[in-house]
Amino acid sequence: MCNAIATTAGIAIDMYKVMLDERTSIPALIKGLLDDARDLIREELQLFRAEMREEVSKLQTVAIAFSVAAVVGVLGGMLLAIALGGALAYFLHWPSWAGYGVVALVFLAGGYGLCLFARARMRVIRAIPNTTDTIKENIAWMQNKSVLR
Question: Is-above-0.70 flag for pTM?
Answer without folding.
Answer: no
